[in-house]
Write a structure and sequence with these properties.
- The chain is globular.
- The protein folds into 2 domains: 110 residues, Serine Threonine Protein Phosphatase 5, Tetratricopeptide repeat, CATH 1.25.40; 93 residues, no CATH class.
- The protein has 10 helices and no strands.
Length: 229
């Protein structure tokens, strides 16, 4: 296992992914509030108030703040301000990484490598719940993250499930989704690809029904009209 003792807390404020789905004014207000809250959490650490820092980072992490997620993972790893919890640490580090923060790469790899397969899948299940909730809220990057989750975190990987999620991400026009989808399906049989495409088509309709405007893409099937019975 890579040494975790050299990890340092992130000082940079990372913007929340969920803000991209909000009106510009709302997103700006949220980012400004998060910057203030993140600085307050770091101030707690500087004063030796680890428990207060954990509480502040946790509130930010739940709302998608990736720097807070990474710092929370580090504090769970170290057992500072909260009992050490490698499953929670792995979950938060991978959530930050899967939603696009590359600073979490080394930490998330080290934490995952240290877990047995069963524990990795516990983390994968928790992450899937987190990411599906984000996708339902209109954060389409979560579809790409779900594909990576099944390919990179799940043990053994569920590559067909990963392919379905990446097909959905591509359909929702997530950056890099088509490239990752094409790379994954390049080595599969035609039968497996057809099966993934059928599943993705069904899932696309289901997810479209879960989305509300303005997040709902124009390519979604028209909602079924209610009829008087």
């Amino acid at each position: 296992m890579r040494a975790l003792s050299v990890l340092t807390l992130l000082f940079a404020v990372s913007l929340a992914m969920a803000a991209s789905a909000m009106p510009p004014e709302t997103a700006w207000d949220q980012r400004a509030a998060e910057e203030v809250a993140f600085k307050a959490a770091m101030d707690h650490l500087h004063r030796g108030e680890a428990a207060e820092a954990v509480d502040s980072f946790r509130h930010l992490a739940v709302n998608g703040h990736s720097a807070a997620q990474i710092n929370l993972a580090i504090l769970y790893t170290r057992g500072e301000g909260v009992p050490s919890d490698r499953l929670a640490a792995t979950r938060w580090a991978w959530r930050a990484r899967l939603m696009g923060d590359r600073r979490a790469a080394s930490l998330s790899d080290a934490l995952l490598e240290a877990l047995p397969a069963r524990s990795r899948n516990v983390v994968a299940d928790r992450l899937r719940e987190d990411l599906e909730a984000l996708a339902a809220a209109g954060a389409f990057q979560a579809f790409l993250a779900l594909g990576r989750l099944e390919a990179e975190v799940r043990t053994p990987p569920r590559l067909d499930d990963a392919g379905v999620w990446l097909m959905l991400a591509a359909a929702f026009e997530v950056s890099q989704a088509r490239r990752m989808r094409d790379r994954l399906i390049a080595g599969v049989t035609d039968a497996r690809r057809l099966s993934m495409e059928a599943r993705a088509g069904e899932a696309f309709t289901v997810w479209c029904d879960r989305l509300t405007s303005p997040a709902r893409p124009v390519t979604c099937p028209a909602p079924a009209m209610a009829t008087d019975g």
